[in-house]
Specification:
With 325 residues, this protein is α+β, with helices and mostly antiparallel strands. Strand 2 and strand 3 form a beta hairpin. The chain has twelve helices and four strands, in the order αααααααβββαααβαα. It is elongated. Strands 1, 2, 3 and 4 form a four-stranded antiparallel sheet that branches. Among the domains are: 113 residues, no CATH class; 104 residues, Band 7 domain (Tetrahydropterin Synthase, Chain A), CATH 3.30.479.30. The longest helix is centred in the C-terminal third of the chain and has 62 residues. Helix 5 packs across helix 6.
Amino acid sequence: MHPLLLAILVIAAVAVLLVLCVFGPYLGIWINARASNAEVGLIQLPLMRIRLRQPATPSYVVANLISLTQAGIEIDISDLEAHVLAGGNLTGVTEATIAADRADLGMDFRQIAAIDLAGRDVMDAVNTSVNPRTLECPPPGTSQIQGVARDGIRLEAKVRITVRTNLNRLVGGATALTIIARVGEGIVAAIGKADSHKQILEKPETISAYILQRGLDSGTAYEILSVDVYHVEIVDNVGAHLQEIQATADEKVAQAHAEIRRAAAVAREREMHARVTEMTSQVTAAEASVPKAMADAYSSGRIWRSPRPIGGGFQRRLWDCWEEI
């Protein structure tokens, strides 16, 4: 055999062996994909194996591509590979995409992949969008929701909220806990707006209508479909209790004012006693100075003494006073 032809055959054999070594492990995957009408290039598979990190493999990506293709969803394998490289759950996204397509939710693979990368359970979100979910307010095991009507009666209410996922607001939207908190606030406000607790007892749907009118699902990842009141109970009469407390407080204030007036009267009485005592002492001092003044007057000759009383009345009394002196 000619040496040149032999060299060509050797090179060709080495090339074929090299191709088999590189593409041989992926040949079965490629054939399976082509048989399922999934667009996959044979050269893409070893390159994908270089880029992917364990445990992800080209067969894992191709299997999801085949599922999407068989469901009638056209997608490029590079989108699936990019989602795996980003750390997403490709199987969950694939199942959610197929479910959303079957339910005609208008969500494509990229939108659902973005939801998955945001940390949400996409399959649960799609299922909740198709089959609405029921929430309880207040949740079991938590404190009760109570409100006070304008007539002072405190009521306790429980509601069930039927919601479905709003996939367009799932990324960045508030969770179900926000819905429950807002509905609890709406229950308190609806009871507080009622003029009488009887209105709530007669028409519990008043609470539901008030909550639905307020648009409490704004900015959340859910859409409220209905709010159903299933329990309303009278707790106590807050108005009467508050009036009792107010009456007790008023009584204490009145007692305090009466005590102030009593203390002022006692102080005034004691002051008057002191003034009487003072005036009495002054009168006594004045009475004591009368005899001395009369003695001084007689000794100085300003008053003369008659041997006996002249006439009666005043003169007689004056004489008797002198005799006593």
